Amino acid sequence: MSNTTIASILLASILTNNMVLSKFLGICPFLGVSKKTNTAFSMSIAVILVMVVSTAVTWPIYNYILSPDYTYLQTIVFILVIAAIVQLIEIVLKRYIKPVYNALGIYLPLITTNCAVLGITMLNITDGLNFVQSLVNAFGAGLGFMLAMLLFSGVRERLETADIPPFLKGLPITLVSAALVSLSFLGFAGIGG
Amino acid sequence: MSNKYLGYFTNGLVKENPTLRLVLGTCPTLAVTTAAINGLGMGVSATVVLVCSNLAISLLRNIIPDRVRIPAFITIIAGFVSVVQMLVKAFLPSIDKSLGIFLPLIVVNCIILARAEMFASKNTVLPSVLDGLGMGIGFTAVLTLMGAIREFFGAGSLFSLPITAELIDPMVIFLLPPGGFFVFGMLVAISNAIAKKQGQKPAVHIGCANCPSRGICGKNSCDSAEEVAVNE
User: Residue A165: inside a domain, yes or no?
Assistant: First the structure.
């Protein structure tokens, strides 16, 4: 496998196929935890970590255990494996890397039911990527999530002081600004591919 | 059917509409509503899972130990999702194709876990089923409406029947991701305006109070995270 494929998978997963803004995965944390830039940053780091580790575990499970006879068990096996992994990461961080746990710990439980993580592990399988490509794709998707979260938290900090028509106040204006941020990402169409 | 039971059913239709009032399940709402039929397909699949999982969980609510209830709920939900997924794949392959991974992702749809945690684990069978049905129909209605709006403006058709496609160039942007965010924002604005007239609060994005994951973390993670951020 050449370096160009790796690079193009990475670019595509960060920009063109951005997790949040073009695939609509992980909208809940995108809208819920993006009010402040530093919370958005910690949450994204936790997501990247869980995504890469989950992919590293679910890919071999699918390809060596479930495939080809038990593929219908994919959904149920993946969600349970991800839930277990998140628990495990939490325990390991708490025991060995306390500062990281203090920074990320509170986000980990929320990630279990985050569709971005289950989504990316499933997309890796449906897109037929190999093990290394899957890891790169998961890492890139996590970075893309982080990029969207950071950009959007900046927008939201500005929105706090903006003069907004009353009927759009709150959630509606957040969604309309998300539409504009997502519009800007359409400009990346064609990169990586 | 007495009024009490009717109340369980209608609750999810308007007053606590899962999409517009509780703002749960935003991912599929935005992702699959590029056509009315997709919204309908997604809504019906989620409704079936919701009713079945509410039924199973309310039956098992006294057997499942409290400490492991969330993993147990997720397993039950994942089981029903797999069943629905296989049925759709077998009988409606075109819907399966357009919903893509969002069909299996019903597992992590906040609405289903939220209703399991907040309603079915505390109520008997009939109210839980009615609650699931009401919530599911409320979800389906909004998804179909949003799909219809985006399809009408973006492709000039409704349920694949051409309406204005010949007369006006359709605005494709409505089918693209920005259109999804925009249309959803407008729908929430309209529903907020109606709610305001009836003296209710505008919808806020979940927050810890009605977050389905609260049972797992139990620490008001997001709210306290926001506080930490403020204090720093």
Answer: yes
